[in-house]
Structures are given as C-alpha cells and as structure tokens.
Design a protein that fits this description.
single chain, 95 residues, mainly alpha, 3 helices
C-alpha cells in the first residue's frame, strides 16, 4: 500500500504543477497549450482515481476515512484547476 501512497503523492504534485503552468498562461497564443493541458488533466484525474481505488482496496478498514479524506482534498484541488482551465480557455478563445 505504501507504493500507492507514494504514487498518489507524485500525482498530486503533478496536479500542483499543472495549476502553476495554467497560472503562467496569459496570451492568446497559449490557447492550444490550454487544450493540451486539458487532455493531460483528464488523464491525470483517471490516474488519481485509480490510485485512490488501489489505496482503498489495500488499506485497513480503520484507515479508509483518512484516505477518503485525502482523496476529497485532491478532488477539490482538481476541480479548482479544472475551473481555472475553463476560465483561461474562455478568455483566450480565438475570436
């Protein structure tokens, strides 16, 4: 199970890096980059969900609430990044 927790930590860092990348995008030329990030974000979400499932199927039942709480935090972070991406795409959309 420890390997799944390490993988989750790594995936969470990737989510944070995606957020930082989005924050640095400011000009319309970067619209296509936002589309690429959107694809990567969807793939990352699938990996995060799979990792969470792996953790929950291997952890002790006493630890389930803790791991579900961590997943809920990551879910909130993901939704924040997704909203940021949608906002960027809307403001950068070619006219």
């Amino acid at each position: 199970m420890e390997e799944y927790i390490k993988r989750r930590r790594h995936l969470r860092k990737r989510l944070e890096k995606t957020k930082e990348k989005l924050e640095s995008i400011e000009n319309p030329i970067m619209y296509d980059m936002c589309n690429i990030i959107q694809e990567q974000l969807q793939e990352l979400w699938i990996e995060l969900k799979n990792c969470s499932d792996d953790i929950l199927t291997t952890c002790d039942s006493d630890d389930e609430d803790e791991h579900e709480g961590v997943f809920d935090e990551i879910n909130d972070e993901y939704n924040e990044v997704k909203l940021m991406l949608r906002t960027k795409l809307a403001t950068l959309a070619p006219e």
